[in-house]
């Protein structure tokens, strides 16, 4: 019994694994490209495509820092010397709120949060472009600097580059997760 | 403000940055030397907070003093946040976050020194 049991067991397992392996590779050859891209995206972004994992951690960290900086600055501006440039300081506060929303949305990474983050980043990008343009065309409109004036030059143009990178990252992760959802069933 | 402390903080955050980049290149994750370096920096930042608050009245301008105090508190957040992320994240991006955090601490410490020297 002991010498008959291993023989069929080993032959059966080797036969089944060989056949399933060959059929599996040939059967999924059509979708192997998308599966591989989804797998590579998943490996860089953790177990599943998530806006707050992998490279997303750095993005969340930078957004968190900007949220902190913008909040601190606008609280200071509004409490200490609001009369100096009210429009600039209201804009700073608005930017701070947007950065907080973007940070939380990207860090949470579920479908609704990512949608909110995408809106926040779009508003941010438009804000940087509009305020940046106005600050160059009509310098008198913003007597004191905001995060967005001169396209964020005071912050190393990070406020201009960040929403573009962020929107690209959201596109990438949502594309990867949608292909993953298609291939899993 | 307290020049030896500022210099020590800049050196320590530089060391943390070098460690993080080293780990990033060697594909290592967070380990004891990294956390200990971060902890030492955080302690030094707490000392800086106490010294800074004690000396803040030397800055005559109210808005500048508020900026100074805001920086003293803000800089405390960076290291715990980056170490937390580096423990949670299991790819090399964790070390990129720590390296960035070290840079930010150095910039904030330098800014603190700048605000101090311009107003005293």
UniProtKB/TrEMBL annotation, chain A:
Annotated coiled-coil segments of the chain: none
Keywords linked to the UniProt accession: Membrane, Transmembrane, Transmembrane helix
Membrane-spanning intervals of the chain: 58-76, 88-107, 119-138, 150-170
Biased composition (Low complexity): 9-36
Annotated region (Disordered), positions in chain: 1-36
Entry keyword Protein biosynthesis: no
Superkingdom, natural source: Bacteria
Name of the protein: Membrane protein
Organism: Intrasporangium oryzae NRRL B-24470
From TrEMBL, chain B:
Keywords assigned: Membrane, Transmembrane, Transmembrane helix
Keyword field contains Membrane: yes
Positions of transmembrane segments: 36-56, 68-87, 93-112
Membrane found in the keyword field: yes
Name of the protein this chain belongs to: Uncharacterized protein
């Amino acid at each position: 019994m002991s010498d008959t049991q291993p023989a069929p067991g080993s032959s059966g397992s080797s036969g089944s694994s060989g056949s399933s392996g060959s059929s599996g590779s040939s059967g999924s050859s059509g979708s192997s490209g998308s599966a591989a891209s989804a797998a590579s995206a998943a490996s860089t972004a953790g177990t599943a495509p998530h806006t707050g994992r992998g490279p997303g951690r750095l993005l969340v960290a930078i957004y968190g820092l900007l949220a902190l900086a913008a909040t601190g600055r606008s609280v200071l501006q509004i409490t200490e010397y609001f009369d100096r440039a009210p429009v600039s300081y209201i804009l700073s506060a608005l930017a701070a709120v947007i950065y907080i929303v973007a940070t939380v949305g990207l860090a949470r990474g579920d479908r609704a949060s990512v949608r909110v983050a995408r809106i926040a980043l779009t508003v941010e990008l438009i804000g940087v472009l509009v305020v940046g343009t106005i600050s160059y065309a009509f310098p008198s409109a913003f007597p004191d600097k905001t995060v967005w004036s001169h396209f964020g030059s005071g912050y190393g143009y990070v406020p201009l580059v960040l929403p573009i990178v962020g929107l690209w990252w959201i596109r990438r992760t949502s594309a990867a997760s949608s292909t993953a959802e298609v291939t899993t069933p | 403000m307290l020049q030896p402390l500022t210099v020590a903080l800049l050196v320590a955050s530089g060391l943390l940055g070098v460690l993080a980049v080293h780990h990033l290149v060697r594909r290592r994750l967070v380990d004891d030397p990294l956390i200990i370096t971060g902890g030492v920096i955080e302690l030094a930042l707490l000392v800086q907070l106490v010294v800074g608050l004690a000396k803040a009245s030397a800055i005559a301008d109210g808005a500048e003093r508020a900026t100074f105090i805001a920086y003293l508190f803000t800089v405390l957040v960076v290291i715990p946040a980056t170490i937390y992320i580096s423990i949670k994240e299991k790819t090399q991006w964790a070390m990129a976050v720590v390296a960035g955090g070290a840079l930010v601490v150095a910039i904030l410490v330098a800014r603190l020194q700048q605000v101090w020297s311009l107003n005293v």
